[in-house]
Amino acid sequence: MEDILKNLPNKAKDTHKENKKFFAKLKQKPPKHLDSLMQELHDEEFRRTDCLECANCCKTTGPLFTDKDIARISKHLKMKPQKFIEAYLRIDEENDYVLQSVPCTFLGPDNFCSIYDVRPKACREFPHTDRKKFQQISNLTLENVAICPAAFNIVEEMKRRLKS
Ligand code: SF4
Ligand code: SF4
């Protein structure tokens, strides 16, 4: 996994132009079966991917925290929401609450998340490859393929499948 993660940014760079073109076309005319195709590709990829060997999303980006996330996690940690915000979060350029620093404070050395059951919605949904109307998050996906090896493979397979 170490090598895969080391090479991923370069591989993403090499495919960026092609991916941009592919997603522009996809946005113009998304195939009718796109939702079911994405579910299939996502399930196939995550059957072979062990996130515990990777944790690159937790190490390099971190999620945004909604008010609901903050309420749920601070309750779990027996902290007042405001204290939780002061301890762990900051407001980013888009006015969202994000982690003060990465790797995420809640990530253990064994790659386990210490707040897994109450983790932010964005963590649960990352890399969003099984969401409906996938064509609507192409800009985000263009970034995610440089972070997440599973998202990279899913997009590569998606290009192969939609070519024919
Ligand atoms: S909250 Fe958990 S799943 Fe989310 S980034 Fe932190 S360690 Fe990873
Ligand atoms: S979601 Fe992607 S980046 Fe995050 S741990 Fe799993 S494979 Fe790695």
What does this molecule look like?
This protein is mostly helical. The protein folds into 2 domains: 2-54 and 130-163, no CATH class; 64-125, no CATH class. Helix content is 56%, strand content 5%. It is built from 8 helices and 3 strands. It has helices at 2-28, 34-48, 56-60, 67-76, 81-88, 121-125, 138-144, 149-163, and strands at 64-65, 89-91, 97-99. A 3-stranded antiparallel β-sheet has the order 1-3-2. The relative contact order is 0.21. The mean pLDDT is 95. Bound molecules: iron/sulfur cluster (SF4) (2 copies). One iron/sulfur cluster binds at residues 58, 62-63, 104, 106-107, 113, 115, 119-120, 123. It comes from Pukyongia salina. InterPro entries: Puta_zinc/iron-chelating_dom (IPR005358). This is Zinc/iron-chelating domain-containing protein.
